[in-house]
Amino acid sequence: xxxxxxxxxxxxxxxxxxxxxxxxxxxxxxxxxxxxxxxxxxxxxxxxxxxxxxxxxxxxxxxxxxxxxxxxxxxxxxxxxxxxxxxxxxxxxxxxxxxxxxxxxxxxxxxxxxxxxxxxxxxxxxxxxxxxxxxxxxxxxxxxxxxxxxxxxxxxxxxxxxxxxxxxxxxxxxxxxxxxxxxxxxxxxxxxxxxxxxxxxxxxxxxxxxxxxxxxxxxxxxxxxxxxxxxxxxxxxxxxxxxxxxxxxxxxxxxxxxxxxxxxxxxxxxxxxxxxxxxxxxxxxxxxxxxxxxxxxxxxxxxxxxxxxxxxxxxxxxxxxxxxxxxxxxxxxxxxxxxxxxxxxxxxxxxxxxxxxxxxxxxxxxxxxxxxxxxxxxxxxxxxxxxxx
Length: 389
Hints:
Number of helices: 12
Number of domains: 2
Distance between the termini: 41 Å
Oligomer: single chain
Radius of gyration: 20 Å
CATH architecture of the largest domain: 3-Layer(aba) Sandwich
Order of helices and strands: EHEHEEHEHEEHEHEHEHEHEHHHEEEE
Structural class: alpha/beta
Helix content: 25-40%
CATH class of the largest domain: Alpha Beta
């Protein structure tokens, strides 16, 4: 895909050629920017793929999806958002895949008064809900929610000293802050902190320092396939403690790149990752399996991806909000409709999605609770639900 080239998607076999006749009659426009190339491509590709599964008509109104690639580049993500709003006159923007780009897009949402739904995780994207953030929502679980689950698991496994290596950007710093706090609450000491870049090809120095600190466990705070680099390096340096990852590693491509070095690693994830293994009493199981069935019917068995789930959930929020926005009498393509859509998203309640149950409010634009997290472990190269952790 060429940078900034828009692809107008239809659910009709996902084929652009078949979608073209629908464009003239489309009345609601959804703009999307994702990182389908660059370091976060393993996140952006399933997100882009999922757009083809989203509804093309809600409440009698056609929906047009305009998808751009930002290449995991913050500047391009902002440029794409401005193009979608100014040139394409979209009613809502979904994206982008990573925290730095999403944070940069927040001001554009506020400036243009356009609702935005991020598919990146950092809580700062939506907190506090004031100023520009009144226009911004997100579908991934907050870092704090997942850090709490990790700290609980670490305590059960007897971790007393924790090492940390994370991205040298907003994602890594956000996780360092929330994990330090969550660990401290469980009596766990952070004994070593290292950072690395998304495009780095070596973390030998950082790994040696971490091993020398002799922590009981080490958390890698990254997302997508670059998380495999410190995981593999630490294993090669003989580290024998427990390896932890964030929900940014809940990606089959990570297992492919990391291979046997990812065995036994533990991470928090959305229920979608192990939906088949959940008890029937889990309130998210049915909605998670619905998305899984649709994705794998189109892209093949075993292709399901939690990052695609974040896009699916964003689509659910939009399609749920559209009828309420239309009832106000506001017309798509107007400032009044964008405001009505924002208000309707904020009022979504008890909506089961692929990753949890949404309950949005004027003070919570993420809307998930503990039902949006499970602990998983990689066993023989497969994600395995760990109900006892």
